[in-house]
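Thread amino acids onto this structure.
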């Protein structure tokens, strides 16, 4: 918090003491002393209050904060509604990310420390090459367990413990993204002070309910990173509602983000979204975890061509792809897109902005899309 300095003379006892000392009577000195002590007490109380307020601010800033979006009554996460995905771009990563972060384009990036599909180092170089966005852009990355790496490309010693692997991968991510000093050993001593916005477990080591011991150890290592203040949100990807429920019930830090492939046929992962919105998954401050959708367009080509979708999109003057992204936004989902086409970026960003501006799909249209999503005929 910054206190603005007023330009008039402060009426503090200290000021009175200095200014009036030479012409003070003993009575005036006594009054000044009383004022001095009283002001001192008031200052201590103020400092105490500021410290509490600051601590509260830092604590709540460390958690996913949702703001009630009055226009849509949909809860709004303090992250961009449309995040630029950087998978499968390889040598083009640097130039695409630079372009994607130009003013008026994307304000958030999703990546992973998984060399097989991502070039996290190139993402970091691109972000750092744009001084204006370097501090403002929302940065999210992932810890990929051993089963998600091409052998020999893991950013950690595969014989290390689960906790050590998470730590090594995390600090390597931080160095890639310019949030820690590079090439000086991947540990907290190199931290530059800016936390990562979100850190997710890319996938489970074992597909089972309840979660395996190994997956719990990985999650606890994520909790440690969060509790140390190195990351503002933790979460998971490619999981079932049952996995999330188990974490919400038993973890010290409930997940802040779930990133899943979003199939229309499951009414857009409705069970998961309901789980995240339920009381059991809410944080102490009443905020709910954010649902992030990937493959929203690529996994749902049928709904994009559905007879219901075309007229809705036409009425809005959009393509069905843009309308589907608007629909997701209206339902409270953050969408990831890795499009390479600037015209598509603009269309998708505009579609989301229109919802932000209150230009909503009607309830009938939302219901029609949900019904079409599970239409067996297509
Ligand atoms: N956690 C995980 O396991 C996981 C898995 C997969 C992906 N992800 C993340 O999610 C990101 C996005 O991946 P994705 O699978 O959703 O798909 P994607 O690779 O981003 O593909 C999006 C597709 O939609 C097209 N598109 C976008 N806007 C369009 C529009 N307005 N009109 C027509 N076509 C449009 C794009 O084509 P153009 O290029 O021609 O625009 C592209 O073919 C990834 O980069 C990655 O960061 C995470």
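Threaded sequence (378 positions):
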């Amino acid at each position: 918090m910054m206190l603005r300095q007023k330009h008039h003379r402060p009426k503090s006892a200290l000021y009175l003491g200095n200014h009036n000392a030479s012409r003070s009577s003993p009575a005036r000195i006594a009054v000044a002393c009383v004022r001095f002590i009283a002001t001192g007490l008031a200052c201590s109380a103020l400092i105490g209050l500021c410290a509490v307020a600051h601590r509260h601010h830092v604590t709540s800033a460390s958690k996913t904060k949702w703001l009630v979006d009055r226009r849509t009554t949909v809860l709004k996460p303090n992250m961009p509604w449309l995040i630029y995905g950087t998978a499968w771009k390889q040598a083009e990563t640097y130039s695409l990310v630079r372009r994607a972060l130009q003013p008026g384009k994307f304000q958030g990036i999703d990546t992973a420390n998984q060399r097989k599909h991502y070039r996290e180092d190139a993402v970091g170089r691109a972000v750092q090459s744009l001084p204006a966005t370097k501090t403002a852009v929302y940065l999210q990355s992932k810890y990929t367990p051993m089963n998600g790496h091409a052998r020999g490309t893991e950013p950690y010693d595969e014989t290390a413990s689960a906790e050590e692997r998470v730590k090594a991968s995390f600090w390597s991510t931080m160095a890639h993204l310019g949030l820690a000093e590079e090439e000086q050993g991947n540990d907290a001593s190199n931290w530059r002070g800016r936390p990562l916005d979100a850190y997710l477990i890319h996938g489970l080591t074992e597909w089972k309910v309840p979660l395996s011991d190994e997956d719990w150890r990985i999650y606890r290592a994520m909790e440690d990173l969060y509790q140390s203040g190195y990351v503002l949100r933790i979460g998971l990807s490619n999981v079932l509602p049952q996995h999330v429920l188990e974490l919400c019930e038993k973890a010290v830090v409930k997940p802040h983000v779930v990133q899943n492939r979003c199939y229309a046929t499951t009414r857009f992962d409705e069970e998961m979204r309901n789980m995240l919105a339920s009381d059991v998954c809410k944080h102490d401050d009443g905020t709910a975890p954010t649902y992030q959708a990937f493959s929203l367009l690529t996994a749902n080509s049928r709904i994009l061509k559905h007879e219901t979708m075309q007229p809705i999109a036409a009425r809005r003057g959009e393509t069905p792809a843009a309308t589907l992204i608007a629909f997701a936004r209206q339902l409270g989902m953050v969408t990831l897109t890795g499009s390479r086409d600037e015209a598509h970026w603009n269309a998708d960003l505009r579609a989301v902005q229109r919802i932000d501006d209150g230009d909503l799909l009607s309830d009938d249209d939302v219901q029609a899309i949900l019904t079409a999503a599970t239409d067996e005929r297509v």
